[in-house]
Amino acid sequence: MATPRPAQLVYDFADGSRDMVDLLGGKGANLAEMTRLGLPVPPGFTITTEACRHYLAQGEEPQSLRVQVTMALRRLEDKLGRRLGDVQDPLLVSVRSGAKFSMPGMMETVLNVGLNDYSVKGLAEAANDERFAWDSYRRLVQMFGKTVLGIPGERFEDELEATKQRAGAASDVELPVDALRELVETFKAIVAEHTGREFPQDPREQLDMAMRAVFDSWNTERARLYRRRERIPHDLGTAVNVCAMVFGNMGETSGTGVCFTRDPATGKPGAYGDYLVNAQGEDVVAGIRNTLSLEDFARLDPASHAELVQIMRRLETHYRDLCDIEFTVERGKLWMLQTRVGKRTAAAAFRIATQLMDERVITPDEALSRVTGAQLGQLLFPQFDPTAERELLTKGMAASPGAASGKLVFSSPTAVEWAARGEQVILCRRETTPDDLPGMVAATGVLTSRGGKTSHAAVVARGMGRTCVCGAEELDVDVAARTVTVRGRVLREGDVISIDGATGEVFAGQLPVVASPVVNYLENGLEAALAEADEETAELVRSVDRVLRHADRTRRLRVRANADTAEDAARARRMGAEGIGLCRTEHMFLGDRRVLIERLVLAETADEQEQVLAELLPLQRADFVELLEAMDGLPVTIRLLDPPLHEFLPDRTALAVKIARGEGEEGDERLLAAVERLHEANPMLGLRGVRLGLLVPGLYAMQVRAIAEAAAERRTAGGDPRVEIMVPLVGSVMELHLIRDEIDGIIAGIEEAAGVQLAIPIGTMIELPRAALTARRIAEAAEFFSFGTNDLTQTTWGFSRDDVEASIFAAYLEKGVFTVSPFESLDRDGVGALIRTAVAAGRETRTDLKLGVCGEHGGDPDSVHFFHDAGLDYVSCSPFRVPVARLEAGRAAVHTEAGGHL
Ligand code: ADP
Ligand code: MG
Ligand code: MG
Predict the structure, then answer these.
(1) What is the DSSP string of 61-81?
(2) Which atom of ligand 1 is nearest to the CA of 248?
(3) Can you spell out the DSSP letters for 699-748?
(4) If DSSP codes are grouped into helix, strand and coil, which group holds residue 361?
(5) For 534, which DSSP code?
(6) Which of 140, 149, 150, 771 has the highest Cβ tally under 10 A?
(7) 111 Cβ closer than 6 Å to some ligand 1 atom
(8) What are the C-alpha distances in Å from 372 to residues 106, 240, 342, 363, 378?
(9) Which residues fall within 8 angstroms of residue 110, CB to CB, at 6 or more apart?
(10) Ligand 1, pocket-test mutation among 326, 327, 333, 343, most atoms within 8 A of CB
(11) 414 lines ligand 1 (CB under 6 A)
(12) HSE of 131 in the Cβ direction (CA atoms, 13 Å)?
């Protein structure tokens, strides 16, 4: 019987490609791709994620892996004519981790693997540079000791520093050979002391140990935490890249650098990068010496620079996107060490997408798919003035966008107290708990040193639109002492700081805030925004405009706004809303009008009741006239009164206390009796929605009359009112039939009296599971459905949002019950299933049934894609989210066209 051929666990760079990212990881797949393109990549091979998964599951590497590594190593040695760790002219390699998604916590790269007490001499001779050889060796022992053997990095760094001091060297390049030789001895002693065994001299053992350390690093605490936060599966594993060394530390004609094909911070066209002479690996980004710009590099080494520029262009052409590149020059010869499609800021994303579109490198549809609603959302917040001087203290996770400055406080009560006297405060905690809620409400911003995007601080801050930076791990928060220490600097209660919730940056002092130019554009139009903008801002605004207009041309979903007033409606229209999907009428009963509701509730006779309603009627009508005028020609969905009546009455306890103190006014006792009668243990599930319409005589009738009369008035005035009436909280078709009988009669009467045809569609919200499940019946009486996904989420999960968000969500997210709050992003499996059911059933009864959504999910990027897929006609969200919904609706359409593969 033939032994089955073992799986291929090792691929030479020359045999892979960028499509193999699952198996080779991002770094390996792109190294292979560059090799395939014929770029100067030092040869090497990649050990697959499959080998890693096997190792992690079995606790040891698959048998065949050792053999396959040997074969790959031999091919590499033969190709270069050198042997790993040979005593003469040794081959050295780097061992680099590289998972499908780059993530913190994975093992850092070990360079110069293969050096030992003998090969270091061979290297010195071959390179004719002793200093270089010993510098490389000390780097190996240092990196290997730290990352593979787990020895604290300071042990080595402190010794390096001490040696520099003794030698009077200002930087590492000035260290003489003898000092480096000594340093190697010291480092080896540290290794022996720490691990109880000598630094491994066998090159192959170095390689194997480093490989296993990379595998193990998949499961470090930090990596696991990061994957949980970013929703990356735990079972992907990481690949290991073994790459022949090239040396940037071989003197003045060598160096190492990083570059981007465009500026990833602003999106400015043209290459951008840093180069450091006589250095290796991360030196260039470590800030140990001053780096050169690409222009300086061009003067220093015109040939290498010219080649780099050419390669940058090839990579950008090949990837059709901004590329992020690492390179090294060894004695005047350029080598490419890494590339990937680069991360970028929101502003850069928009600018680069339109630049590439104008260069005809990508299609308009692709440009649309290269930006996200979340990025557009970030651009809508006020920002710190980009031209202002700033002092960065540290960086945490961008948890809830916005730019906030204020005095540091360390407890919730202090935040409340200081805010009450008019101070802006930033609440700084290690992490927050439900007890901190009052302080979070009072603060302008929240800063924590622990926890990720799903921590309590992040979830709650996002829920209430508060700026938040969380998990800024460099902060040492001492609540008792009311101080926070960052990189040795102590900040006290009352010191002013600024936090940027879109980038996670934390700054010292107060930074000036500027309004978002994109909001200016949305509010006042392109011309107005361009008039005030500098060149860079103008390009950004133009990009947003063009991408949004393309989204508008492409999308199938209509976008409406939730707006209650004419002012909101006008604003929503400027933001691109194509109507109102939800006008709540409850605010129309607040303020001065609250007394009318009191009188309505207290009315003892039908006469009295009618009189109150007669007083309310003209007020309501005037509200609707204004609203319909602001949205003339576009649909306006008005929801009949939804919340329980006691929300309009005084607080029960306050009123009782007032009376008990003898401070009650006339009628207060009757009022208290009414308040008590209407009191409910669980108002969310009590007398509200259509139940009010059926049980409080005349209330809905008055509202319908006001709506129809307003429409008639607008029509007579030459307007084009398109009002729709929506009945909330229906659970049974019978409820809707009963209400409709009343509504239809009233409208018919008004049409006759005014001599106009109003054609007002009557529909219902679908916000109870029973409504979704009986949608076939409900559609008999409804001309449209609007999914009220907030209540539908509450009733499907049995969550009372106000109660659970602060008390249990952080824990639920941490435990993985869900990965995102179902109030933030639609729960596709549960709530989404009800929606799909209702869509199908409703359309079965009525093929032209109009379907929309008016919960906050209508402005959530992920949810918009779901609503597109579910076949809804429109989404409706707060005016501010309208541009985001327009963009995402466009992206959803492009995504579907492309078969979900863009
Ligand atoms: P990261 O994932 O942190 O980017 P890398 O594996 O890219 O880690 O390596 C860290 C540094 O070492 C980078 O500056 C990289 O360019 C450099 N480096 C990696 N492999 C080699 C090599 N074979 N020769 C020279 N430098 C290398
Ligand atoms: Mg790198
Ligand atoms: Mg509701």
Answers:
(1) --HHHHHHHHHHHHHHHHHHT
(2) 25
(3) HHHHHHHHHHHHHHHHHHTT---EEEEEE-S--SHHHHHHHHHHHHHHHH
(4) coil
(5) -
(6) 771
(7) yes
(8) 28, 32, 15, 16, 10
(9) 94, 95, 140, 143, 144, 147, 148, 210
(10) 326
(11) no
(12) 12
pLDDT bucket at 288, cuts 50 / 70 / 90: confident
Asked whether 643 and 621 are in contact (CB, 8 A), the reply is: no
Annotated binding site for substrate: 584, 639, 767, 788-791
- For residue 393, what are the CA distances in angstroms to 105, 396, 489, 506, 755? 22, 10, 9, 6, 70
Catalytic positions are 456, 854
Would you say the CB of residue 539 lies under 6 angstroms from ligand 1?
no
* Nearest ligand (C-alpha, residue 562): 3
* Closest residue CA from atom 18 of ligand 1: 281
* pLDDT tens by residue, 605-637: 999 999 999 999 999 999 999 999 999 999 999
The residue contributing the CA closest to ligand 1 atom 13 is 281
Instruction: Identify which of 338, 340, 343 to mutate to test ligand 1's pocket (most ligand atoms within 8 A of the CB).
Output: 338
User: What type of residue is 214?
Assistant: V
Identify residue 110 by its one-letter amino acid code.
V
Convert the pLDDT of each residue in 485-542 to its tens digit: 999 999 999 999 999 998 899 999 999 998 899 999 999 999 999 998 889 899 999 9
pTM, two decimals, is 0.86
Kindly list the structural domains of the chain, giving each domain's residue range(s) and its CATH number in brackets, ordered by start.
10-244 (3.30.1490.20), 255-341 (3.30.470.20), 382-515 (3.50.30.10), 555-644+680-897 (3.20.20.60)
Q: Which tens digits make up the pLDDT trace of 46-61? A: 999 999 999 999 999 9
Which residue type, as a one-letter code, is found at position 239?
Answer: A
Instruction: Ligand 1, residue 96: give the atom nearest the CA.
Output: 6
Q: Closest ligand 1 atom to the C-alpha of 326?
A: 16
